[in-house]
Amino acid sequence: MADAHAKNHDYHLVDPSPWPAVGAAAAFIMAVGAVMWMHGSTWAVMVVGLLGVLYTMFMWWRDIVKESHKGDHTDVVSLHLRYGMLLFIASEVMFFVAWFWAFFDASLFAGDVMQPSRVDATSGVWPPKGIDVFDPWHLPLINTLILLTSGTTVTWAHHALLNNDRKGLKWGLALTIGLGLLFTAVQAYEYAHAAFAFNRDNGGNIYGSTFFMATGFHGFHVIIGTLFLIVCLFRALKGHFRPEKHFGFEAAAWYWHFVDVVWLFLFACIYVWGSAGVQLVEH
């Protein structure tokens, strides 16, 4: 009788879960391990934390999928899940606003005589003298085309799912994942050849700081989005998702399109405008 009364509503009361605490502990261990590794210590602690985070992601997602299959995700719950995902993406937008702000603050006011330290750091021009920036029409343009193409393949997968085309869904997801991995590989190659990279000898520079924080965090989001889509592919192979109920895939597609749009702004502002900004701000 108590169980029947408990289900006499459209909401889902989540069962107690260990994964928030486990995930927080694993993230803390990973962060501490990363700091140790950056200071010349072993990377083993960071890897232990990373494995803990990945394990938490797997188990937590597994529990949510089970809840959905049990019927706990009613129409009201699904609507609130959508609200939650939209708010999460909105918070991510503001996260990137901070890095764009830092970049434009450093570049637009490179020659601000009221702040001598800034002039010293930038030589009064942008990009700072001695900084050999990337040609935006080489690897950055290639990565832009890769990511835009991945946006079309994930949309193909979504439309295939809506039309109950399981083969198209699987192929669209597989191609999107492959393009996401290719983007990450090209960016890793680009970073390995950055003339303004950080090292213990020169300590970096303001151009490198703003560049790596903005593009690096985007690269991290691409990796997270790729993992998200890999989970969706495994679920599709197991027969999950229906045309009328597939929020797990929908959330992954939203996130991927967000990553695409952010990259377009990064390419236009940091790679294209940033590499030519010296003519605009030179004093």
SSE arrangement:
Blueprint: H1 2-6, H2 19-38, H3 44-69, H4 75-108, H5 116-122, H6 139-162, H7 166-192, H8 206-237, H9 247-276, H10 278-281
Description:
With 283 residues, this protein is an all-alpha fold. The chain has two domains: 72 residues, Orthogonal Bundle (Helix Hairpins); 208 residues, Cytochrome c oxidase, subunit III, four-helix bundle (Four Helix Bundle (Hemerythrin (Met), subunit A), Up-down Bundle). It has ten helices and no strands. The longest helix is centred in the first third of the chain and has 34 residues. It is globular, with a radius of gyration of 22 Å. The C terminus is likely disordered.
What would you say the CATH architecture of the largest domain is? Up-down Bundle
Overall spatial form: globular
What is the number of E strands? 0
Largest sheet: none
- Provide the gyration radius in Å: 22 Å
Estimate nothing, just give the exact number of structural domains: 2
Q: Fraction of residues in helices? A: over 70%
Derived structural class: mainly alpha
Query: Segments where pLDDT lies below 50 for 5+ residues?
Result: 278-283
pLDDT averaged residue by residue: 87
